[in-house]
Structures are given as C-alpha cells and as structure tokens.
C-alpha cells in the first residue's frame, strides 16, 4: 500500500431540508451524470439561491513580464484562474515561439506563470492557442503539472469555498460566487476580454445533482500487478469460467492494463484504513499525514504499536489511525471470504471455499468480480468461485436506462404487488427530485403506465426475467410480458384443479407407469415430457436459462394444457368402454403434473410448491416435505416414442387445419367433418386418433374417406399434406367465393415454391455441384409439390361442380 496525492472529484452533498451537511467523497465515474450544454445555461445548484451560469467560455488577458505585452486565455471555470500556475502553448505556434520559457504575472497575487509547451494538450487552432494550466483542479492540467513539475495549488476548501490560497479578496466565497467576483475584478484591472457560448460537458453528481469539481486529495493505493496477473491466468487456464464467454475479452483487457487501485474513500462508514500515523513530540507539522514516512501499515493496533516502538525507540509520540475508510469495492471484494468466517479458519471456509458459481450483473465485472478474485487468491490462495455467470442489465420497455429523473425506474415490489398510477406518482413525490424533474418523471409514468402496474406476483416476475436472459446484454422490461406469465400461473392452477377432479379423492399414483399398454395420446405426452425435461436440464447445465423457460412453457402450455388435457376429456364421460383409457390417463396426468411442477420449480418456486403439495402422493413416499428438496426430474428413456410423436404431428396439423375452417361467426357450433386419406397408412393413423381429432377440433363427428368416396357436399376444405385433406361441413354457412379465394391463394403459394425449386434445379452447375442426397431430396419435394397442385385443382373443380 502506498500513499500519494491524486485528483479526486469533489461533491457537495445536501442532506435533509434545513440543515446543510457538507461532505466530500471521491466518486467514481459511473456516479457522475454527464450533461451536454450547447450554449449559456443557467442551472440550479444545491446551496445557491440564484441559478449559476454555465456553458460559456470567458476570455481574459494575463500580463507578461519584461513588457512583452499580454497573452489571452479562455476558460469555462474562470474562478480556477486563482490556482493557475502556468500557461501552455503549442511548440510550433509561431505566435508564441518568442515567449517559450518566459513568464506571465498573475494579476491578483503576482505569482509568476511560466509559458510552457504542451503539444498533447494545446491545439494552436483552438481559441488563442494559449491555455491556462490549473494542475490542482483539472485532470488534464494535472498531467501537465506532473510533466513540467509545476506547483499544485488547491484553491478550494472542502466546503466548496475559496480558501486562503485564493487570496484575501476571494477567500471564503462559495466557488460560484467567486465566479462572478473574479470577472468583476478582471474588468476592474482591464483584463476581461469577453464571453461566448460554449459547447461543453458538465459533470453532476447522480445523487445530489451538485457540480463535480476535481480536487487533489491524498489517497491510499494498492499496487495490483501481481494480483491482476493471477486473476488473469485463472481465467486463461479455465480455473474460472466466465459465462457468456464473450466477456472474457473484457476481463483480459482490464487486467492486462491494471493500474494502482485507489482504495480509500472519503465516506461516512466502512472498514477503516489499516494505517496509523505517528506524530512525534518534536514534529514541526502536527497534521496527520504531514510527513509521509510517519505512516505505519499494520494488521491491528497492537502490531502498529510494536512497529512504532521499533522505529522510534527513544521518542515520545502519539499514534492515530487514519479516519478514512476503504473503498466499498475493497470490502465487497472480501465477501466470499468473510461470509465463510475468514480470517478465522472455520469449518465453513474449508468446506465451501471455493464456491461454485457467482451470478451478478455484467456491469460490475471489474468493480466487484475481479476484486473478489484478486483478493481471494491473494489472501486465501485460491479462486473464490469456479464459474462467473453474468446476467444482462434491466432497462425500460423502450430500451432506456432506468433513471430517477425519467421516472422509468421500476421497483420490483410494485410489479409483484401491483400499484395504481396514483400510487406510482406518490412514490415520486416522496423521492428527492426537483420540481422540473418531478414533472418530467410523472409525465413518463403516465405514458408508460396509464393504468398503473397490474399485480404480477413473484413467480411471474422471476419467470419473465429469466426468460429475458437471452436478450444480449440488455433486458428491455415490458410489464405486459410479466403480466402474461401471471395469467399463465392461473392456467397452472386450473390444470391442477381439473386434475384433482379427474383423479378423484381415492387416487393413489402407481409406482411405475405401464406405458406400453396406454392409449397413444398418453404415450405422446410422456414422450414429449421426457424431451422437455432433457432440453430443460441441458439448458440449465449450459447456463441457457431462457431456453429452459421456453422448453418448460412450451410443454406445459401447448402440449399438456392445450392438447393432452383436452384430448382425454372424452375418456371421463362415464362410459364403461373407456375404463382402461381412463386409468391410463389418470396415471399419465399425475406423472405429468408431478414431473412438470418439479421441472418448473426453480423458475416459479411459490406456485409450484403450493400446487405440488395438493397432488396425491405415491404409497412409498409417506411424507411429502417440500418440492424444494424433491428430486429434480431427468429424461426417461422408456417414455421416448418417435413413432407416436410423428403421428401426433400429423394429427395436430389436421386439427389446426380443421379449426381454421371454422367460420369466425359461430365458432362454438359443432359440425361434422371428413378426413380424406389418400393412402392406407395415413387412414390407419387417423383411425387411431379419430376421437382426439374430433375433440381437439371441436367437431360433432369425424368420418374417414378414401379417394373412392364421393366428396362430401357443402364443405370447406383444407389440405394438410399430399396424403391428407380435411373437410368441414358448413352447409349454408359455406361461402363458395371465399373457398375459391382460399384455394387460389394456396395454389399460388405452392406454385411459387414449385417454381423456385425447379428454377434452382435447372440452374447451371446444379447437377454437377449439388450433393446427390440433396438432389434426391429436391426431386422428392418437387414431386410432392406437383401432387399438391393437382389436389388443389381437384378441390377447385369439385367446388365448381356443385354450383
Ligand atoms: C494483531 O495481528 C497479529 C498478526 O499480525 C496477531 O498475531 C495478533 O494477535 C493481533 N492482535 C490483536 C489484539 O488482535
Ligand atoms: C361416451 O363417449 C363415447 C364416444 O363418444 C360414446 O360412445 C358413449 O356413449 C359416451 N358415454 C356416455 C355415458 O355418455
């Protein structure tokens, strides 16, 4: 650890309404809001009753010694001229070549300001080509000051007033009052040269809105070279894995260019800096830090005392700990160690360190994650975690950063519990926005949430956020999507309610499922469930959480609720003939709900626990503790059934084609339907699923036709594939025109595909270059399209024949 002076930023903080508490902290760049000003702008500044002028460039002349005339400089912060210690020009600027190494004289204190060359800083074409240098209050000037060994004169007190270095004329003035006073004083001396609008950027503290002022403050630093190298190697050697891997580059870039870490912060609380200052009885300067070599760095006070005794054996002294505290990130960097009891050698520490996964926002990869890795490796000899999962940053639905003044910040509690627009606006009023910002923020809320935020619950919010994680590095949070998942939670309730009725009070789940003897619909839902489980587990293992949400949602919604639960309803009509199908459906339904809830549990913990507790339990599990400690599902090989899945694909396609034939005006009226099968295999499949198709398509009856059968009259038709067409008897509701139009559109679509494909196949080089298997596929596809075209023509002529 070493001690040196650097430029820190100064911020004046306002606390409470009446009492003005002033404090200074060194603030990081991300706590500063950059404001662009295009021209003169008057801004409210905390602590000033009148607005302060910004966005102007003020010019004034410094007189030169030896009667050389004057040199004109310009600045946006005229008050800082009180701390100027040099004037910089470009070395090649002909106007000033004769002045290199000469001096200007400060009009208020007579200080000599050397004319120096700083080609990095000065552009000969900008302004007068001469730049005033204030090393103690500007970061660029600070560098120049170091290079040219200039004086660093601090002109501000910690309260933001001018101190004694500013001279008796200005001492004690608030900095922006001095802004006007300096101009007046320059005018009096005839040195003021004017003011013009200036395009500039202003830094404001994001918490207090005060204007940030660079100041020099002594700080403690840590040399990170060794630690950074270790942390860099840990990722390179895969001791630590960063997910998603594209952020590895950021890790390397930062650690390869590591700089000394400023670890002290002028904050109110924190870990105290472990540095003690020795004030000797015969020291001339008694202020803490006056002599840099009087500092002692130690683990604790007793160690510091021992060290002091050794260093100053015969002297009288006083020992004081630096009141400053460590950077929050320094303390946070110790987190993986301290939560396990470090520095004590606890059982937890030896058992759980290193931990497995750290999950955090990608914006603090350096601030926090890298610090934990560096400190864990240095202080405990090993990485703190094996994997780092970085999640995106949440923004509003329009992709804007959430900011208080825009009023687009969403409190998760408001999403969970719901809130009215009035409630949202009231919250703003209790914040610390000024009047202008408040109005703007209220406007924003009114636009985004005209009806407030509906109650979404914890589960829906969690599920939505997880499902969003596939969106690059930003999440544009749309409450509508969260609310959609809330409605989905209701559907889960309904599914369980349905199941409880169908299972009955006496139901006991079997130890194993007799899949082989089950109806195809049961085989199908179990097969797709096993697939969904496999996909979910592999997605979770690969940290693709969004994929896990979609495979679970897809299965629950589109396969279990929309298809299976609907398709088994007829089995429960009390008929004796369905007894075995009913039994199989019950067992399958139970297995689906039990597995489905366990699968969903980590993504929706509350509702799944509640519903799972209501499900009947198998005999051997006498106690049902919690879904939290139940086994997580894994794919069941015996359930996989590609044949049934392929059949169901055709069945569901036929169902959706039939449903699309329903006239929108009376969708609930059940009508007879016909399925034309052009080969025996397809006819057999459709035969197997006849009842399911009828139920899912909401038709009154289903008849299977072959090519030899006459076309049923008054039907709307739809082609499923070349072997399968569906007919729905609409009778008077049949709109021949519309049917023609539909067929025409379908023919156009197929014709277009046919044309594109045949063009591709007849293109030069196709026969020579395309692989044989591809050519065979294309050939088959072409034949299929041709058949479809024939079927369409057939359907069209039949439609005509009837008129
Ligand atoms: C101070 O730290 C040293 C290790 O450097 C340790 O041996 C000693 O016990 C500590 N003293 C106190 C009072 O904690
Ligand atoms: C149940 O449905 C089947 C098939 O639709 C039907 O044959 C049977 O008559 C129905 N039974 C009762 C009791 O409704």
UniProtKB/TrEMBL annotation:
Its EC number is 6.1.1.9. It comes from the Eukaryota. Residues 766-780 have a biased composition (Basic and acidic residues). It is found in: Mitochondrion. Residues 1-15 form the signal peptide. Residues 201-478 form the Aminoacyl-tRNA synthetase class Ia domain. InterPro entries: aa-tRNA-synth_Ia, Anticodon_Ia_Val, Leu_tRNA-synth_edit, M/V/L/I-tRNA-synth_anticd-bd, Rossmann-like_a/b/a_fold, tRNA-bd_arm, tRNAsynth_Ia_anticodon-bd, Val-tRNA_synth_C_sf. GO terms for biological process: valyl-tRNA aminoacylation. GO terms for molecular function: aminoacyl-tRNA deacylase activity; ATP binding; valine-tRNA ligase activity. Gene3D superfamilies: HUPs (3.40.50.620), Isoleucyl-tRNA Synthetase, Domain 1 (1.10.730.10), Valyl-tRNA synthetase, C-terminal domain (1.10.287.380), Valyl/Leucyl/Isoleucyl-tRNA synthetase, editing domain (3.90.740.10). One of its GO terms (cellular component) is cytosol. It catalyses: tRNA(Val) + L-valine + ATP = L-valyl-tRNA(Val) + AMP + diphosphate. Coiled coil: none annotated. Residues 523-660 form the Methionyl/Valyl/Leucyl/Isoleucyl-tRNA synthetase anticodon-binding domain. It is an enzyme of class 6 (ligase). Residues 99-158 form the Leucyl-tRNA synthetase editing domain. Keywords: Aminoacyl-tRNA synthetase, ATP-binding, Cytoplasm, Ligase, Nucleotide-binding, Protein biosynthesis, Signal. Residues 756-780 are annotated as: Disordered. NCBIfam families: PRK05729.1, valS. This is Valine--tRNA ligase, mitochondrial.
């Amino acid at each position: 650890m070493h001690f040196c002076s650097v430029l820190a930023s100064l911020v004046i903080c306002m606390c409470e309404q009446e009492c003005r508490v002033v404090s200074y902290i060194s603030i990081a760049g991300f706590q500063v809001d950059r404001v662009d000003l295009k021209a003169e702008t008057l801004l409210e500044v905390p602590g000033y009753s009148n607005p302060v002028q910004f966005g102007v460039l003020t010019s004034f002349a410094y007189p030169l010694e030896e009667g050389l005339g004057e040199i004109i400089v310009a600045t946006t912060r005229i008050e800082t001229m009180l701390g100027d210690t040099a004037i910089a020009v470009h070395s090649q600027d002909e106007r000033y070549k004769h002045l290199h190494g000469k001096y200007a004289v400060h009009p208020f204190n007579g200080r000599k300001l050397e004319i120096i060359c700083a080609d990095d800083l000065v552009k000969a074409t900008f302004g007068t080509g001469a730049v005033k240098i204030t090393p103690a209050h500007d970061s660029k000037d600070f560098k120049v000051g170091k290079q040219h060994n200039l004086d660093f004169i601090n002109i501000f007190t910690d309260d933001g007033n001018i101190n004694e270095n500013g001279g008796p004329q200005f001492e004690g003035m608030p900095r922006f009052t001095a802004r006007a006073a300096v101009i007046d004083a320059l005018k009096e001396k005839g040195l003021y040269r004017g003011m013009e609008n200036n395009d500039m950027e202003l830094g404001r503290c994001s918490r207090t809105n005060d204007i940030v002022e660079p100041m020099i403050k002594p700080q403690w630093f840590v040399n990170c070279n060794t630690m950074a190298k270790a942390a860099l190697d840990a990722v390179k050697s895969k001791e630590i894995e960063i997910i998603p891997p594209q952020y590895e580059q950021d890790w390397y870039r930062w650690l390869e260019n590591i700089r000394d870490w400023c670890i002290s912060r002028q904050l109110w609380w924190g870990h105290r800096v472990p540095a003690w200052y020795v004030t000797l009885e015969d020291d001339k300067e008694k202020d803490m830090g006056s002599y840099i070599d009087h500092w002692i760095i130690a683990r604790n006070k007793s160690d510091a005392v021992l060290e002091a005794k050794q260093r100053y054996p015969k002297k009288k002294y006083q020992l004081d700990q630096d009141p400053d505290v460590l950077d929050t990130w320094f303390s946070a960097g110790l987190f993986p160690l301290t939560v396990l009891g470090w520095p004590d050698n606890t059982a937890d520490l030896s058992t759980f360190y290193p931990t497995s996964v750290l999950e955090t926002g990608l914006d603090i990869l350096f601030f926090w994650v890298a610090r934990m890795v560096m400190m864990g490796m240095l202080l405990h000899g090993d990485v703190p975690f094996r994997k780092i999962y970085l999640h995106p940053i949440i923004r509003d639905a329009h992709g804007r950063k959430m900011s208080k003044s825009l009023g687009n910040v969403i409190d998760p509690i408001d999403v969970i519990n719901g809130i009215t627009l009035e409630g949202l606006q009231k919250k703003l009023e209790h914040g610390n926005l000024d009047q202008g910002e408040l109005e703007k923020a209220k406007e924003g809320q009114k636009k985004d949430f005209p009806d407030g935020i509906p109650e979404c619950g914890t589960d829906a919010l969690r599920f939505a956020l997880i499902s969003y994680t596939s969106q690059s590095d930003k999440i544009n949070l749309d409450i509508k999507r969260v609310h959609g998942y809330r409605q989905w939670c209701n559907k889960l309730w309904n599914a369980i309610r349905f199941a409880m009725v169908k299972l009955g009070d006496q139901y006991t789940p079997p130890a194993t499922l007799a899949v082989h003897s089950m109806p195809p619909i049961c085989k199908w839902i179990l097969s797709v469930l096993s697939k969904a489980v496999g996909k979910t587990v592999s997605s979770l293992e690969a940290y693709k959480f969004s994929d896990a949400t979609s495979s679970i949602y897809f299965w629950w919604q589109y396969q279990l609720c929309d298809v299976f639960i609907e398709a088994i309803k007829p089995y429960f009509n009390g008929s004796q003939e369905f007894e075995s199908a009913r039994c199989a459906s019950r067992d399958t339904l139970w297995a689906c709900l039990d597995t489905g809830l366990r699968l969903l549990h980590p993504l929706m913990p509350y509702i799944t626990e509640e519903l799972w507790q209501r499900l009947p339990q198998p005999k051997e599990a006498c106690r049902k503790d919690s879904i939290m400690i139940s086994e997580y599902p894994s794919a069941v090989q015996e359930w996989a059934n590609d044949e049934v899945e392929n059949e169901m694909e055709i069945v569901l396609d036929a169902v959706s084609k039939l449903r699309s034939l329903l006239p929108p005006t009376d969708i609930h009226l059940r009508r007879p339907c016909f399925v034309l099968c052009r080969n025996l295999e397809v006819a057999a499949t459709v035969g197997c699923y006849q009842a399911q198709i009828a139920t899912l398509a909401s038709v009154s009856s289903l008849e299977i036709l072959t090519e030899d059968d006459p076309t049923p009259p008054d039907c709307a038709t739809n082609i499923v594939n070349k072997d399968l067409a569906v007919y729905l008897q609409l009778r008077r509701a049949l709109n021949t025109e519309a049917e023609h139009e539909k067929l025409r559109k379908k023919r156009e679509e197929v014709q277009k595909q046919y044309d594109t494909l045949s063009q591709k196949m007849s293109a030069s080089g196709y026969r020579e270059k395309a692989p044989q298997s591809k050519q065979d596929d294309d050939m088959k596809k072409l034949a299929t399209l041709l058949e479809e075209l024939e079927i369409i023509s057939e359907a069209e002529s039949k439609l005509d024949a009837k008129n």
